[in-house]
Amino acid sequence: MSEALLRVENIDTYLGDSHVIQGVSLAVPAGKVVALLGRNGAGKTTTLRSIMRMSPPRSGKVTFDGRDLDGLATHEIARARVAFVQETRAIFPSLTVEENLAIAVRPAPNGWTMAQIYEDFPNLAARRGNGGMQLSGGEQQMLAIARALVSNPRLLLLDEPSEGLAPLIVRQISEVIIRLKQAGMTMLLVEQNLAMALEVADEVVVLGKGRVRWSGPAADFRAQDEIRHTWLGV
Ligand SMILES: Nc1ncnc2c1ncn2[C@@H]1O[C@H](COP(=O)(O)OP(=O)(O)OP(=O)(O)O)[C@@H](O)[C@H]1O
Ligand SMILES: [Mg+2]
Question: Residue 37: which domain range?
Fold first, then answer.
């Protein structure tokens, strides 16, 4: 089990007095995509925020590439090459596409460059001089992902990248994620769009009310009608 790039072991996280994450464990092996599924309020975002120590766990352990993240600041975890694309997308509305990318660049040998981004995301290339505020929801999501990529992460945490986007745009986002997977990117993908998640995931973790209710290979998840019904409502 030591091969996982990210390992979350029995973490408990509180928001105020509320015990939101209750003994959650999961592992993301290098080069794999793990989908973290669950209904609204299940604790998906809080799990990602716990990993980044934006909401530090009160107990349990998170290791990245064998290194205990306990005591690190969020920016130090980012510097260790963990990128977090938040639900809010958090791009800078007053900066252009180009400026949003430029401030995120962290070169790596054979890594992502701005030129590579413009080649792979022609929409962003066409919009490079536009302000973040002028972008559509789909373009903002693409920019948020592209910004994470130019930081050349070893692990990408994605929080509901399809949220609020039209089916055609969701399709484009899926294709980006599939391409990243084919290029070997390790990802922990939070989604409520089950079809999209199952299209890319190697492993599935189902969260419900702050606990892991099921986890296993994505291929086995399809037969879990009761889990799906009870914890995802589909
Ligand atoms: N600041 C807070 N204080 C107390 N409880 C909170 C706070 N923020 C969120 N919660 C609660 O924590 C639980 C988990 O929230 P979280 O945002 O992690 O869920 P989620 O699975 O990401 O949901 P969604 O799909 O809606 O994004 C929810 O029940 C929520 O009401
Ligand atoms: Mg959330």
Answer: 1-81+155-161+186-234
The residue written with tokens 């089990």 in the block is 1
Residue 51 belongs to domain with CATH number: 3.40.50.300
Q: What is the pLDDT of residue 85?
A: 96
Cβ(18) – ligand 1 distance below 6 Å: yes
Residues sharing a CB contact under 8 Å with residue 164, sequence separation 6 or more, in sequence order? 137
- Tell me: the pLDDT tens digits for 88-142? 778 888 999 999 999 999 999 999 999 999 999 999 999 999 998 889 999 999 9
Query: Are 28 and 6 within 8 A, CB to CB?
Result: yes
41 ligand 1 Cβ < 6 A? yes
Is 227 domain-assigned? Answer: yes
Ligand number, closest to the Cα atom of 159: 2
Claim: this prediction has a pTM higher than 0.90: yes
Spacing, Cα 30 to ligand 2 middle (Å): 24
Domain annotation covers residue 193: yes
Nearest CA to ligand 1 atom 27: 40
Ligand 1 proximity of 17 Cβ (cutoff 6 Å):
no
Tell me the pLDDT tens digit for each residue of 201-221.
Answer: 999 999 999 999 999 999 999
Q: Which helix (H) or strand (E) holds 35?
A: strand 33-37
Task: Report if residue 123 sits inside a domain.
Answer: no
Query: Distance (Å, rounded) from C-alpha 69 to C-alpha 8?
Result: 10
